[in-house]
Amino acid sequence: MDQQQIPLDSGTGLSTLAIALLKGVIYREGDERLWAALLNLQARVRDYMAVIGLELVLDEAEGYAFLRSKADDETETDKLPRLVARRPLSFPVSLLLALLRKKLAEFDAGGGDTRLVLSRDEIVDLIRVFLPDSSNEARLIDQIETHINKVVELGFLRKLKAAGGPAGFEVRRILKAFIDAQWLADFDARLATYQNQLAGKDSMEGETL
Predict the structure, then answer these.
(1) How far apart are the C-alpha atoms of 101 and 109, rounded to whole Å?
(2) 180/177 Cα distance (integer angstroms)
(3) What distances in angstroms separate CA 162 from CA 18, 145, 146, 155, 166, one per listed residue?
(4) Are 69 and 55 in contact (CB under 8 A)?
(5) Which of 1, 8, 62, 166 could pair covalently with 173 via S-S, beta carbons 3.0-4.6 A apart?
(6) Phi, psi (5° rounding) for residue 51?
(7) Helix boundaries (H) for the chain
(8) CB 174 within 8 A of CB 64
């Protein structure tokens, strides 16, 4: 692709990138032309977003970029309204994200393909052993389906179209930006906490993003 064909010096180019980022994550695989423009204009995009209290997170190797609120180190009088809301997550959703992140780390350690794709049944098996026992199997599966759909809504899983068979789910690599290596190092301790909380407090709120 010839990146020089992109109108990098135009105000429209910068505005287009800003609008796309405010709408959600930009993936290299989703729009290579937009991604190329972002790489070339990233310094200007960072400055532009900083004015409204947002920080550009760009991972060129993994191929994604998104906005998040800057660290709250300003004085009270200088603070701007939060444009990127923090969303409370239920314990099961937080747990599922942690399990998917650990699965992604294991997958990366094994080398090979860069896309981790799991079936619905594999995701169900991943989390069900940590959830409270239930005599109603159908209800338990429905609850897990709800958690999976929430993770899809958050953008950490992408549902793949099935060709006559069960749908698969791609674990999006942007998950690494929200659950880092240090977090994973403490995973066992966190998991024990999750198990205790899930045993009797399934509806309580957990992590926030």
Answers:
(1) 12
(2) 6
(3) 33, 17, 19, 19, 6
(4) yes
(5) 62
(6) -60, -30
(7) 11-23, 32-50, 91-109, 120-128, 137-154, 175-178, 181-185, 187-200
(8) yes
Nearest to 169 by CA among 177, 161, 179, 159: 159
Q: Tally DSSP H helices, then E strands, for the chain.
A: 8, 8
CA distance 208 to 154: 12
Q: For 58, phi and psi rounded to 5 degrees?
A: -130, 120
Which of helix, strand or coil describes residue 134?
Answer: coil
Cα angle, residue 99 at apex, residues 93 and 100 outer, rounded to 5°? 90
- Retrieve residue 16's tokens: 């287009």
The pLDDT value given to residue 56: 92
Residue 111 structure tokens:
């080398």
Q: Euclidean distance between the first and final Cα of the chain, in Å? A: 35
- For residue range 66-117, list pLDDT tens digits in order: 988 876 544 443 554 454 556 677 878 888 988 999 899 889 888 777 789 9
Q: Are 55 and 70 in contact (CB under 8 A)?
A: yes
pLDDT of the residue at 79: 52
Distances (CA, A) of 120 to 69, 136, 148, 171, 199: 33, 19, 9, 12, 23
